[in-house]
Amino acid sequence: MYAVPSLGDLMARARKAFRANLKGSDAWVWPNNVYVSAKVMAGMTFEVFGFASYISRQKFAVTAPDLESLKLHGEEFGISQNPAAPARGKVIVTTAAAFVLAGGAVFRRADGVEFISKDAGSTTGAGSFTVRVEASADGKAGTTEAGTPLEIVSGGTGDPDALAEVDSDGLAYGADVEDIESYRARILFRKRNPPHGGSAADYVMWAGQVPGVSFYADRPTVYVERLWSGNGTVRVFPLMFDLYDNGIPSPSDVARVRDHIEALRPAGARVAVAAPTAVVVDVVISGLAPDRSDVREAVRAELRDVFRRRSRVAGTDSEISNMPYLAYPASFSRSWIWQSVANASGEERHVITSPSADVALDPGEMAVLGTVSFV
Asked: DSSP code of 343?
């Protein structure tokens, strides 16, 4: 590979050229107009080299240096950057007296995030009703857990003590604009896995088109289980690490992915989209040395990281080396836990008391980190 000369090398070359071609001159001596000329020429040449290097990196999706050039690669395959989306769902309003809620009413979460009602609702006395809401701004910040209380800021008349809370499905769908590395990973996946009439890779690509579904270059975040319930059946497990710590999507997120794939799947294919079942792994560590608060926090951080990197959805499919996204029989190795704790900054020794063996996973299950205890 051609190496771009440094600015110093280019200045030296220019000065040598002046010395060789302009007899009696010496571009290393100051003050000297040849000295200045060599420096200016070297600077301009270095800028040209830099631009040529930038262009050469634009040629390939794997090295495209910015979003503008990466989008050109995406456009060749009809792959656009996933846009931001507002969180939405339903809110239950409960009153002790007559109450009227207008469409467009504003609800506010304790941290200030606001949601707009898409419906009107009312009670003639004590009772409750449900309205659809949408976050006032795009982004994952609007994602809200079930049962979260909301303040009715405006649009309500009647009972001043009316209460509102998020229903059992939570407020989901919220997603930030897809970052450049996730977008790059999807483009590279498409280049390496051309469409093939409903192959396993096609389902990975289709799921990745839904805002909120994670997509990384170094590990699968969408798992596909072929023939999981007989001929023509496919089960897809999308993960959403940018929205949820353990990556497991909510029921409404699953429905969103299902609706998208349903419009793309081959005729005759019976497709199920599901969230993996969490197998909570509590970790008990004894004999940590030195047993300090900063070392404990470093251990927790390493454990969170290893579960994020190493956890996968188990299934009944076959293990194929160049198809890591298949959901095949798997377990979570105890050695990964031991190694991750050993990697923690400041750790000198420890013993993993629990789990005492590899964590077995049934089809459709995925290991997630539970409580970390030190004894």
From this structure: T
Distance CA 240, CA 368 (A): 13
206, β-bridge pairs: none
What residues contact 190, with CB distance under 8 A and at least 6 apart?
77, 79, 205
From residue 181, how far is each of 20, 294, 360 by CA, in Å? 49, 31, 32
**R_g of the chain computed on alpha carbons:** 29
Structure tokens at 341: 């704790």
In angstroms, the CA 237 to CA 220 distance is 11
24: which 2 tokens? 């009696």
Cβ proximity of 326 and 315 under 8 Å: yes
Domain for residue 331, yes or no? yes
pLDDT of residue 372: 97
Start-to-end CA distance of the chain, whole Å, equals 55
Q: Identify the band that residue 53 occupies on the pLDDT scale cut at 50, 70 and 90.
A: confident
Tell if the pTM clears 0.90, that is, is over it: no
If asked whether residues 155 and 201 sit together in one domain, one would say no
DSSP 8-state symbol, 22: S
Residue with tokens 């794997």: 62
| 175 domain residue, yes or no | no
- What domain range includes position 54? 7-58
Domain CATH number, residue 161 = 2.40.30
Q: Would residue 76 count as lying in a domain?
A: no
- Tell me whether residue 197 is exposed, middle or buried, using C-beta atoms within 10 angstroms of its C-beta: 0 to 12, 13 to 18, 19 or more: exposed
